[in-house]
Amino acid sequence: MIKTSLMAGAAAVALLASPGIASAQDQAALEARIAQLEAQLNALKSEVVASRTQQAAQQQDIIRLETRPAAPVQQAAAPAAPSDGFRIGDHTVKFGGFVKVDAYATRYSGGDPLNGDALREFHIPGSIPIGGADEDTATDFNARQTRFWLTTDGMVGGHKIGTRMEMDFQTLPGAGDQRTTSPANPALRRAFITIDNWLIGQEWTNFQNTAVLPESADFIGAAEGTVFARQVQVRYTRGPFSVSVENPETTVTPFGGGARIVADDNSLPDFTARYAVSQPWGDFQFAGLLRQLKYQNPATNIDSTATGWGLSASTKIKVGSKDDIRLMLTGGEGIGRYVGLNFSNDAVVDASGELDSIGVVAGFAAYRHVWAPGWRSSLIWSAQKVDNETGFTGLAVNRSAQSIHANLIWSPVTAFDVGAELMFADREIETGASGDMTRLILFAKYGF
């Protein structure tokens, strides 16, 4: 295009230079044509310069791309550090617990338990002495409720996996006495694995509701009326529903009465189902238990099974902005070891060597009141009634038990509690004989 324009311009100049060929009008037209061609030529020169500049810049970009170092490979972001605990691989690990020191001053109407007896350190309804001599107040100090736990939580292969291990020193007294030390041995409380909706290991029974347990200076507090058991199980939870198969065990009263028999003969696990809901007004839970009772003794030709069942309803109802009422009611047959720390056995052997399940009704009511920031009290009543067939059990078995507690607890700083609790408890057997216990508990507890 540039060459064509140049040739046209040259021809026009030559024509204009030839004398006598063109008129004055033709000459003016030729001059205008020459000016137009010169403008087009200048524009074409500018386009050529711009094109060459752009090509040079593109060539420099290519050179830089070919010679610059490769970009580093992006590494996956490290998991954020947990707000508490620490990380090991894909898991967050946490450690905690509390130290608790108790002082007891107790008066027993039916004789003092021996030194080292568990009753001297927490309330066991079935162990309150009956028939012994009344003695002066007994004082005991201990730190055996001290507890520690370790948990892990993480995501592995798209599954949420966690573990918990928890121990205290409450249930296994150490060897020796209190002359030079107060002995205590560590005891396993809870040890389980959770995988998504599954729980496998030792945990509170699915038949129990720990969320409604009253706040007490005692290890349990409302012991007579409380479902209380920790055992190995496999549990599945989906929303408010949970079901489990749990470690079985049958406790038996021999025909005519006598020492408890822990049969250890069960073939089938215990089955539980639970429905738990939480509402703005509080919490509610309904649970059921179905179990096999079994006892075999080749020496006496006993080989018998029976069916045990139980139902339990519990709730925590908010009163105002800070107070609450806590209730539990449990009943059934053949569930003695689940209620009141095995106050009643599950079954009794009848005259023909067959198991007969024992009926139980138990419950508690508690009111918790907050007096001021850091100050609170609980008033607790707990009871259990056993339906014994005295023709089989005899008259020395437990008929009923109850207790009442009142406490005052102060938290001067976060996680530090000090308090006092006064309790009265009694036990009655089928003969009508009874024994009672009056106890003052002072304690200090710090959680970490």
Characterise this structure:
This protein has helices spanning 2-17, 24-67, 390-393, and strands at residues 86-88, 91-108, 138-142, 147-156, 159-168, 187-195, 198-204, 230-238, 241-246, 251-253, 261-262, 270-279, 282-297, 302-319, 323-333, 347-349, 355-357, 359-372, 375-387, 398-413, 416-429, 434-447. It is mainly beta and 448 residues long. The strands form two sheets. It has a 16-stranded antiparallel β-barrel. The chain has a four-stranded mixed beta sheet with strand order 11-10-16-17, with no helix packed on it. Strand 4 and strand 5 (159-168) form a beta hairpin. The longest helix is centred in the first third of the chain and has 44 residues, at 24-67. The N and C termini lie far apart (90 Å). 32% of the residues are buried.
